[in-house]
Amino acid sequence: MPRGIAEFNKRVTNPAARAITPWLPSLGTLEHVGRKSGKRYRTPLLVFKTDGGYAILIGYGPQTDWLKNVLAGGPAVLRKRGRAVALTNPRVVSKAEAAGLVVPRSRPLYRAFPYNEAALLLTDAGPRRTGRRTGGAAGN
User: Fold this and answer.
1) Which Gene3D superfamilies match (predicted)?
2) Which of 79, 96, 115, 140 has the fewest CB atoms within 10 Å distance of its CB?
3) Quick one: which H or E segment has residue 55?
4) Is the pLDDT higher at 30 or at 5?
5) Which of 106, 111, 122 is nearest to 74 (CA)?
6) Cα 75 to chain center, whole Å?
C-alpha cells in the first residue's frame, strides 16, 4: 500500500479503529514500544490465531514502524477480545507460509485480505500480568 495511505491511517483511521477492535474477530490492537523514542504505541491490525500464537498481516511493507519496533525486540502485547497476551519470538514469513499455520476456521478470511506482502508470526507467551503485587516471594 502507498505510504500516503499509511500516514492517513496512522493519524485518522487507527484512532477510530482502536475503539472497535475488541468486537471484531480479525482485529486486535498491538501494543509496542518505539525503538528510538521509547514511547508506547497501540496499533490496530489484522490478527489471526495460530496453534502457538498469532499471525499479523503486514500491509505496508517492511518499513512499517510497528513492525520495526517489534522486530527490534521491544515488548509486544496483543489486546484481542478482552484479553491481553504477551507475544515473543517475532519472525517475518510470506503470507502463504503463515496461511498454513493460521487455525483452519480463520484461513478463508486470512486469505481474503489483499495484503500479500508478508505476515509476522509471534508466539503466545501467556496472559499478561497486570495489577500490583501484594507480598509473596520474589520471582512470582
Assistant:
1) Electron Transport, Fmn-binding Protein, Chain A (2.30.110.10)
2) 140
3) strand 53-58
4) 30
5) 122
6) 11
pLDDT in tens, 19-54: 667 667 888 999 999 999 999 999 989 999 999 999
Is residue 21 within 8 A of residue 5, CB to CB? The reply is no
CA distance 122 to 64: 17
pTM exceeds 0.85 for this model: no
Query: CA–CA distance from 137 to each of 67, 69, 79, 131 (Å)?
Result: 36, 33, 29, 16
| Cα–Cα–Cα angle for 98, 55, 8, rounded to 5 degrees | 115
Phi, psi (rounded to 5 degrees) for 17: -65, -35
Note whether 75 and 33 are within 8 A (CB): yes
* 68-105 confidence digits (pLDDT tens): 999 998 899 999 888 899 999 999 999 999 999 999 99
